[in-house]
Amino acid sequence: MHPRRSAQEVLLCDLCETIPLQSHCELCNINLCVNCAVKHLSDSSKRHNVVPFLQRKVTPNYPKCPKHPEKHCELHCEECNIPVCSTCVSSGKHKGHDMSDILEKLSAKTESLQKDLKELETRIYPRYEEMASDVQTEKAELETKYGKLITIADQQGEILHREITAIVNRRKSAIAEMKTKHLDALNKNTEEITQKMAELKQIMSDLKSILKLNDVSLTSTYKSRNSEFRTLPPKVRVTVPSFSPQKINKDQLNEMFGSLPPLSINTEHGDTIKSAEAVSSPPVKPLLDEPRVTATIDTGYSEFLDRLFSVSCLSEDQVWTCGNKKTMKLLNLQSKLLTSIKTKSGREPKDIAVTRDGDLVYTDSSNNTVNLIKNKQIQTVITLQGWRPGYVCCTAGNDLLVTMISDDEEQSKVVRYSGSTEKQSIQFDDQGRPLYSSGGYKYLSENKNLDICVADCEARAVVVVNQSGKLRFRYTGHPSNTEQSFNPRGITTDSQSHILTADYRNHRIHILDQDGQFLCYIHCDLERPLGLCVDIRDNLFVAEWHTAKVKKIQYL
Question: How many CA atoms are closer than 13 Å to the CA of 212, on its beta-carbon side?
Fold first, then answer.
């Protein structure tokens, strides 16, 4: 649009960029005004072909050959990966090399650029924006959070000051009381001495009078009292007490004041955003119209006395199971017991999962531990304080995700562990509200896009957060009529990033896409479906609480 015009678009000369164009040079592929066309034709070094703009041929904009400036490159050498002209080809330098049309190469490259631009605009840049927003939010919260720390420090200082002032006042009061008693003792002693001195003065005066009068009668009757006064009256000795201040131990004082650990700044490896090709790399497997049961495993738990809780795939034909007994069982599709292992505590496990190395992990809420079984040896890898472990899953990065509830049953959270080290705690949303209900069952699974999916039974919802713990969505059931309200228990995900969750009381499985959109149900005559897992071929295994059986279902 011309800067001085707004009603219409004006095409300007490519050289002067001020006067509207009238001509076009087909050799140089530039647009020219009248004046610039005259100047352009004056260049005799080239055979310019200037035509009226409306009569120009629509020719591709071939690049000029760097070695032969008078030529345009109409070919692309695949081996040298450079544009070449006909002279370059005839020179023999590219003999035997594969050539492609430059426009076809341009078209393919343009398509690649368009894909890159689309990925940058729709996938990569929005994630950077999200990260920047998260950092800004965290910065905005610093004043409040560190202000709270300062307030706590001030309050603790005031408490210590009050205590120290009280101690000082008690010591000063004791000193003043001692001083008063000391003074009273000295005053009493002074009174006794003063009384004796008065008596002595009187005696000395009487003796002087007798001697002066030289009276025989007085002299003969005189009785000496000197022996009475030779023993001096007792002298009260009061020792002023000494104050022995204790040397202040700064370490103990710091400890008494309260601990403040050093600031921990950890730079986590940035998440890798999968390319559109990588995201769509698994072959597309459409959902079957009629899912079917391909195997039924009798776990050996009694249908009437025992209950089946969880199932976890070791392979396509072997699954670990656990129920309300202390024994965990490895079974094949023919219901043959391959291995059984008892929990370390002798109590029933809460949940089980299989690691990428094929080892079994189980949680034990009776002693608040998470345990790893390797070569049939049980190793306690996590022991919790103040929290009880619930359900567990192994991630693509070989971490452990564990749901847990506080001892007072007021809080719930998901914690990520690498070995025995806590790496992440997920408990609140951006507004500081709890993501999960305070109690109930909370099965969980990691999706292929690294979302963390939790089936929150008490909240009657599937709660999905991204890898950083930010809430993505909640699924509270399909609006279709149900016998009872949505009651999610077991949860798992497949290669298509589907989310599958067991609707326990409605005897079916809900299948969602990765964004929480309902796709379909799986029925298959299920009875109280509880635990779920998917093998590497996307076969679904369902642990039925009511029948104590595991059903293998093909649904893709």
Answer: 6
Place of tokens 């305070």: 438
| CATH 3.30.160 residue window(s) in the chain | 1-59
**Residue 472: pLDDT over 90:** yes
| CA atoms lying within 13 Å on the CB side of residue 349 | 29
pLDDT score, position 143: 87
On the question of pLDDT at 282 being above 90, the answer is no
DSSP state of 124: I
Distances (CA, A) of 129 to 141, 265, 430, 439, 524: 18, 22, 16, 35, 45
Report, at the CATH architecture level, how domain 285-554 is classified: 6 Propeller (2.120)
SS (H, E, C) 156-200: HHHHHHHHHHHHHHHHHHHHHHHHHHHHHHHHHHHHHHHHHHHHH
pLDDT the model gives residue 483: 64
Residue 2 scores a pLDDT above 60 = no
User: What pLDDT score was predicted for residue 460?
Assistant: 92
List, in sequence order, every beta strand (DSSP E) within 284-376: 292-298, 308-313, 318-323, 327-332, 337-342, 351-354, 360-364, 369-374
Distance CA 466, CA 38 (A): 64
What is the Cα–Cα distance from 60 to 75, expressed in whole angstroms?
Answer: 13
CATH topology of domain 1-59: Double Stranded RNA Binding Domain (3.30.160)
